[in-house]
Amino acid sequence: MSRKKIALIGGGQIGGTLAHLAALKEMGDIVLFDIVEGLPQGKALDLAQSGPVDGFDAALKGANAYKDIEGADVVIVTAGVPRKPGMSRDDLLGINLKVMKAVGEGIRQYAPNAFVICITNPLDAMVWALQKFSGLPTEKVCGMAGVLDSARFRHFLAEEFDVSVEDVTAFVLGGHGDTMVPLTRYSAVAGIPVPDLVKMGWSTQEKIDAIVQRTRDGGAEIVGLLKTGSAFYAPAASAIQMAESYLKDKKRLLPCAAHLNGEYGLSDMYVGVPAIIGAGGIEKIVEIDLIGEEKSGFDHSVGAVKGLVEACLTIDSTL
Ligand code: TXD
Predict the structure, then answer these.
(1) Angstrom distance (rounded) from CA 260 to CA 281
(2) Which of 89, 55, 241, 283 is nearest to 177 (CA)?
(3) Disulfide: which of 141, 143, 158, 226 matches 127 by Cβ 3.0-4.6 Å?
(4) Where does the chain bind NAD(+) (predicted)?
(5) What's CA 247's distance to the chain center, in Å?
(6) In the chain, pLDDT over 90 holds for what percent of residues?
(7) How far does the centroid of ligand 1 lie from the alpha carbon of residue 30, in Å?
(8) How far does residue 75's CA lie from ligand 1's centre (Å)?
(9) Torsion angle (degrees, nearest 10) of CA 211, 224, 85, 94
(10) pLDDT tens-digit profile of 219-273?
């Protein structure tokens, strides 16, 4: 059996970390693509030279031509431009939409059978556009945000309860951004729901509310600390978990930006929902009951994503 091929579009902070993790886990041979000449080649060579030390066998190649992603089994997209001072959200949207067009066409031509995970922001709108530009089946294109947002929530909860992160499960749904919806009721320590733990005196509602808010601001907290750039270790780890679930047909139930067509009462939209990832891609979207503030928070988040998608439609009439 030949090795799988992993194509990483965007060789920046997350792209490089994705390449490192994929190599360490021997997920397959790796192609790191970027428009900047030398950057992906340099990172690929550096990473390949860590192979003898870490003991992994994977071919790593840097590329500036889409032909090099030919036949990829998995494509993870981080290509794009971050928001710079003075740039509006719509300016960023316009630039990254053009990037998604180029990437989508590259995937359509060279990797039409791949499972595609988009990470580029604004996530829910970019993954929607990428699916359209690539023309791949909707179940083969998804976005990563929920695994990361949930991981942040899990980390904070584990710290609060002083338990292993391994025993904390948590769900964050909705769009990636200020409007995301951390679901306390569906979050638990070894199966014990967080509201029960509050009743048991393990924490207070005020503290849990503060953790929910810190989760929502999780990306901004790191940007504030780093000053240049945004989080990359945890985002990369999160996308790798999704890729592994696909490659190994693990059928993990993970919060992903998945294409909805009727589910949650929405049509032709990408938004963060629980989904099963297996060899078929997004094999099933799980519709959980949302009540009260969960429902209103989800609706509000969906409204924000719709606004971004409408802005995409105004910018690019081919969509
Ligand atoms: O949860 C999530 N989805 C996210 C999203 C969490 C953290 C960061 N998130 C977003 O991921 C972030 O807002 C960015 O849009 C992406 C990538 O973040 P990263 O930190 O890796 O950004 P970099 O270091 O700027 O890397 C982007 C690379 C850079 O090397 C550019 O040269 C390249 O993208 N780039 C391109 N590559 C290919 N093709 C085109 N057109 C292109 N344009 C820029």
Answers:
(1) 14
(2) 89
(3) 143
(4) 10-15, 34, 96, 119-121
(5) 16
(6) 92
(7) 18
(8) 14
(9) -50
(10) 999 999 998 889 999 999 999 999 999 999 999 999 999 999 999 999 999 999 9
Provide the β-strand partners of residue 171. 183
Q: Residue 191, annotated ligand binder?
A: no
- Vertex 62: Cα angle to 3 and 135 (nearest 5): 70
Q: In what order do the strands lie in the sheet with 141-143?
A: 60-63, 29-33, 5-9, 74-77, 115-118, 141-143, 252-261, 267-278, 281-285
d(CA 19, CA 24): 9
What residues are annotated to the active site? 176
Which tokens go with 80? 């794009």
Best mutation site among 87, 92, 144, 230 for ligand 1 pocket (most ligand atoms within 8 Å of CB): 230
Report how far residue 38's alpha carbon sits from residue 42's, in angstroms, rounded to the nearest whole number: 6
Q: Which two tokens stand for residue 98?
A: 């053009």
**pLDDT at residue 84 in the model:** 75
Amino acid sitting at position 266: L
Q: Tell me the backbone φ, ψ of residue 47, rounded to 5 degrees.
A: -65, -40
What the block records as the tokens of 182 is 């951390």
H-only helix segments in 163-232: 194-199, 205-216, 218-226
> Which residue is associated with the tokens 């909805």?
260
Amino acid letter at 273? V
Residue nearest (by alpha carbon) to ligand 1 atom 16: 120
Q: What is the DSSP string of 92-105?
A: HHHHHHHHHHHHHH
